[in-house]
Amino acid sequence: MTKTKNMKLLLTSAGFENKKVGEIFIYEIEKNPVEVKVLIVASARTPEENFYVGESQKELEQCGIKDISVYNLDRDIVFDELKQYDVVYVCGGNTFFIYSQMKKFGFDVAIVEYIKTGGFYIGVSAGSVIPGPSIEIAGWGANGDKNDIGLKDLTGLKIVDFAISPHFKEEERDEIGEFQSMVNYKVETLMDDQAILVKDSKIEKIN
Predict the structure, then answer these.
(1) How far apart are alpha carbons 129 and 137 in whole angstroms?
(2) How far apart are CA 80 and CA 64, in angstroms?
(3) Residue 164: closest CA among 57, 48, 9
(4) Mind listing the domains of the chain with CATH numbers?
(5) 73 near 101, Cβ under 8 Å?
(6) With a threshold of 0.70, does the pTM exceed it?
(7) Distance between CA 95 and CA 34 in Å, rounded?
(8) Most C-beta atoms within 10 A of its C-beta, which of 4, 36, 83, 201?
């Protein structure tokens, strides 16, 4: 795991579906919400994906945040642009497609620098998988994402040294156990009301 002072990530399965996750977010931003600038990062290809981007924006607004921009992974982006934001919030969707778009437009490089310099990263579903050592877990099991773009390099951002399996249900435990036996890093499962807060090198699971 990248060990950086002031590193802060909130990795969620379904955003602030659990109100406690939203409350911890507000506590951790350490600013008045009306002063916080948030960049929502999405790669919406369908009406359903656009709907969830809108829901993410509503959740942030309910936290008192008013300054929200959306970047749809459709143009180049660099660290100097990201550093203007207090929070970068990466939405869900097809993990393989989102990550390929990140690489295409330089977001993967910019977000690593952003996190290393103290920026607050929030992930939802796919956005929580990408900071790990690999995104392979995203395609695992009966309900996994389809790698329909043929993405070859599945190495994640390697900001954290564990993989997230979001939207976990108890009946998937054997599937996840099988995957865990194949890899040399830890797999953390998250139900939709759970999240993981990474703060410096400390990891806290939120239930």
Answers:
(1) 8
(2) 26
(3) 9
(4) 8-206 (3.40.50.880)
(5) yes
(6) yes
(7) 31
(8) 36
Task: Please say whether the beta carbons of 14 and 124 come within 8 A.
Answer: yes
- Residue-wise pLDDT tens digits, 177-187: 999 999 999 99
Q: At what angle do helices 95-104 and 107-116 cross, to 10 degrees?
A: 90
pLDDT tens digit string along 17-76? Answer: 999 999 999 999 999 999 999 999 998 778 888 888 999 999 999 999 999 999 999 999
Dist. CA 199–CA 28, nearest whole Å: 9
Phi and psi at 69, nearest 5°, equal -115, 160
Name the phi and psi angles at 124, rounded to 5: -125, 120
Q: Which amino acid is at 52?
A: Y
- Which amino acid, residue 79? F
> In this predicted model, what pLDDT tens digit does every residue of 138-173 receive, in sequence order?
999 888 999 999 999 999 999 999 999 999 999 999
